Amino acid sequence: MAETRTLAAPDFAGWSCPLPLRDHPRVVMGHGGGGVMSAELVENVFAPAFGSDPLAALRDSAELTLGGARLAFSTDSFVVRPLFFPGGSIGDLAVNGTVNDLAMSGARAAYLSCGVILEEGVEMAVVGRVAEAMGAAARVAQVAVVTGDTKVVEAGHGDGIYLNTAGIGLIPAGVDLRPQRAVPGDVVIVSGEIGLHGVAIMSVREGLEFGVEISSDCAALGGLVEAMLAVTPDLHVLRDPTRGGLAAALGEIAAAAGLGVVLSERAVPVPPEVANACAILGLDPMYVANEGKLVAFVPREHAEAVLAAMRAHPLGARAAVIGECVAEHPGMVVARTALGGTRVVDLPLGEQLPRIC
After folding, report:
1. Measured between alpha carbons, how far is 158 from 135 in angstroms, rounded to an integer?
2. pLDDT at res. 338
3. SS (H, E, C) 282-342
4. Contact 123, 84 (CB under 8 A)
5. Is residue 238 within 8 Å of 163, Cβ to Cβ?
6. Comparing C-alpha atoms, which of 253, 193, 206 is closest to residue 356?
7. Which ranges carry the PurM-like N-terminal domain (predicted)?
8. Is the pLDDT of residue 152 over 60?
9. pTM of the model
10. CA 188, CA 282: separation in Å to the nearest integer?
11. Could you point out which of 66, 137, 139, 255 has its C-alpha 20 to 30 Å from the C-alpha of 102?
C-alpha cells in the first residue's frame, strides 16, 4: 500500500505582520493586490512549500543558468475586468506584462506561452478579439507565442476569459539587475507619468466620467530597457510599478536593499487627469497601478546619460528624476511634500483598485 503523507497546515502564528488573516484565515481580494498581504501570502505559504532558491529571491522574473546561458523566466496571470478598456485589453496586458517582467532583469523576451481559461457562454467574437490583441502585442514586442493550453469552465465560474502567460529571455553579459545592488547615492528615475492604467480601468468598470478619456499606458518596455543598457550595463535596479503602484515598487526595493529612499513629491510626474480623478475619489496616485512604466535605480555618474537615452525613446519621453537612495531610515520611503514637509510612503496593505491586471 502506498504511504499516505499528511501535510502540515501553515503556522499563522509565525507570520511577521499582524494582519486580519491570522484571525480569519481566508483569502480576500487584498491578497492579489501586490501589497503587504500579497507578499505575506507568497513568503509564508508558497515559497516555503516550493523550497526553490530562485523563487526565494522574489523578483519579477527568476534568473536561471542553463547550458551556460543566463535566462530570465517569468509567469503572470490576468483576470482584469473589463476585458477591453481605453488603451488596451486583457490580451495586450498578458503579452506586455510578461515581456516587462523579463525586461526588468535586462532580458528581451524571446518566447511566450499562453494559457486560456474560457467561461462557458462567452462569445466567440470576444475570444477572437482577445486573440488578435495578443498577436498584435506580441508582434510589437518582437516575441513569439509558441505554446499554450485552453480550458473551459462552467457558466458563472469566470469573467469570460482569464489568461496566463509565461516567458523566457536571455540576460546579456555584464547585466546584473536586482534590488540588493541599490546603494546610497543612486538616482531614482521613473520613465513617465504614473497612474494611467489603474484610473483607466476604474473609469470604465464603474462608468465614471472625468471630462476627458483616460487611456491605459499598457506597453512593452523591452526596447526602452535596451536603450538604457546601451548607455551602461551597470544599472542597479529596474522595476515595473504595476499592482500597488510606484509606492509598492519603491518600498519593496528599499526593504530588500536595506536602505532609504527620499522622493521629491513634486518631481513625480502625475498627469492632471489622473490627479483630478484621484482627488475626487480619495486615492493616492503613488499607489495606482501602471502597465507601461518602469522605475530605475541608476549610479549617479550615469544618471544624466541614462535619463537622456530614456527621453529619446517614445516610452520614456517624459522620464524624470524623482529621488535618491540614502543610508538613513533603511527600508523606508519618504517623500518631501510641496509644502516643505515629509511623509512616509508606506507599502500598501492590499490594493486600492482590485482586478487591474
Report:
1. 23
2. 83
3. CCCHHHCCCCCCCEEEECHHHHHHHHHHHHCCHHHCCCEEEEEEECCCCCCEEEECCCCCE
4. no
5. no
6. 206
7. 60-171
8. yes
9. 0.87
10. 26
11. 255
pLDDT digits (tens, 9 = 90+) for 248-265: 999 999 999 999 999 999
CB-based contact 95:129 (threshold 8 Å): no
- CA pair distance 160, 191, nearest whole angstrom: 33
pLDDT at 105: 96
C-alpha cell recorded at residue 95: 503579452
In this structure, are residues 197 and 279 in contact, taking their beta carbons and an 8 Å threshold? Answer: no
Non-local (6+) Cβ contacts of 213 within 8 A are: 86
Cell numbers of 250, please? 519603491
Residue for grid cell 509558441: 146
Record the cell numbers describing residue 156, joined without a space. Answer: 458563472
Model confidence pLDDT, tens digit, residues 67-84: 889 999 999 999 999 999
The CATH class of 64-173 is alpha beta
**Strand bridging mode 260-264 / 333-336:** parallel
198 touches 80 (CB < 8 A): no
Work out the end-to-end distance of the chain between its first and last CA atoms, rounded to an integer number of angstroms: 46
Helix (H) or strand (E) holding 203, with range, is helix 196-205
Q: Over range 153-162, report the average pLDDT.
A: 93
Let me know: does 188 contact 249? Beta carbons within 8 Å: no
Q: List b or e across 201-213, with b for residues whose CB sees 16 or more CB atoms inside 10 angstroms.
A: bbbbbeeeeeeee
Task: Please give the distance of CA 155 from its chain centroid, rounded to a whole number.
Answer: 30
What is the identity of the amino acid at 8?
Answer: A
Q: Are 319 and 238 in contact (CB under 8 A)?
A: no
User: Identity (one letter) of the amino acid at 66?
Assistant: L
The yes-or-no verdict on residue 51 having pLDDT over 80 is no
Q: What is the mean pLDDT of the chain?
A: 89
Helix axes 222-231, 300-311, angle to 10 degrees: 140
Which three cell numbers, joined as nine digits, stand for 346? 508606506
The predicted structure's pLDDT at residue 15: 43
pLDDT at 48: 80
| Range of 27-31, 272-276, 314-318, 347-351 with top mean pLDDT | 314-318
Q: Where do the domains of the chain lie?
A: 64-173, 179-344
Task: Identify residue 290 by its one-letter amino acid code.
Answer: N
What residue type is assigned to position 131 of the chain?
A: A
